[in-house]
Specification:
The protein is of the alpha+beta class. It has helices spanning 22-28, 65-71, 110-136, 201-210, 227-230, 233-249, 269-286, 309-315, 319-330, 336-339, 367-375, 393-396, 417-431, and strands at 6-8, 17-19, 52-62, 90-95, 98-103, 106-107, 155-156, 168-171, 187-197, 303-305, 399-404, 412-413. Helix content is 33%, strand content 14%. Helix 6 packs across helix 7 (269-286). The chain is elongated.
Amino acid sequence: MVNPMYIQDPKMPGLQFRQLPLTAWSQHGASYYPDRILRGHLGQPATPRLPQVMFEFDVHYGFRDEVNEKLGQRVPFDRLTKHDKKHDFFNVKQDLDRLEIGTERFTLDTAGLANIAQVKKNIAAFADALEKGCRSASERTNISIPKITGHPRLFPLPNARDSTSGLLVHKLHINGKFPTKSECLVWASPQAHITIPLAKVGQLIDEIRNSIGKPPGKALTGGSDRRMGFRSDHLFRAKEGVESLRKAMLTWNHKLSNGVLVDATTFSDQLSGFLMLQASYLWVIKLAQKADKESFGKGHLPINVKTPFPDIFSKIVTPTEQLIYRELFAGPAIRYRMFGLVESHPTLAHGAQRLFPPVVGFVTFTWDDLLNWTLGLPSSIHGLPGGGTQWPADLTTPLVALELRRVGFRAMAAKHWDTFIDTIIDLTRRLN
């Protein structure tokens, strides 16, 4: 007879029986069971909240450092044009060397949908102004960049603020050459932010997979033959791993330390969604490719979780789900099972594995850091592991905010932005 203090794990040869480290919890004292973990669950029903969406378009127009130096111009990282989110529902800033169109956060109600209809017109007008500026500009033959064919077609930044009215912008070079007059089409790498129930993460992953091969504006990722599309495999493998392990664990008839049975109700779709998101982060280093050059963590993620994991854990996940996560997945002496969602022969030593590839050199977060951060234990992570602006749970509960990054798996021409926005709105509605 198996001691109830042990957990049978038939999927992991050599690790069939692992003692549940109840003493480990007490070693961490109150820090492991902070009062805030139960706040918002006891006698406080979830407050209904309308879903939200937000969009970013990293446009292939902007400012190369070499060109700026020769022009003697300095580009601020503040708002560049007169557009503002209060009146125009978007603004334009510099993101590295590109122009970034960032919209307001829209609630999917009557007023929000009306504002979305307006912002679609506004960003289309800005894209049209960029294309016309490029087509009407002449090549600056006195400005060259080593190893780049041609010359930039410089023109004044459309709708510039008074402080930026002297800036000259151009369509950036690609594939080793500057565009000709006939190549001024405006395109961007888009991202979409959505808020959905945690229990719908599995359905979201299915929606992403099922969109492969659809036309521009409707596909949420590419196939694995595309580098950016291949990164969505992180999600597909994470979902498959969690579903497989959940199916096995439901046959164990295991009871938690508080006597609650782990069954199909307690090991819920919400907990599964939480585990899928975390497992997708663990897959990043395992599926890294030599061609991956992005120096920022979120560039390697298929979904950047904008509501911090500690917030989700303490304010959205239920107390029973928290206990399952601590006792069966993420506790300091049991987390080999979490690593087993990625590794064939997991051990606790895998906790020292880097979260992101070495090209993300300014951070060295580990798998242990991710789990410790989630549980409120000491961790190197502050802010979001992949970077970006947080959407705290106080602004999203009972929903979670997710940034869909693989929707930018290929260049999207401005003429498809309208369809893309509609696709994301329809997706968010289905998931809510």
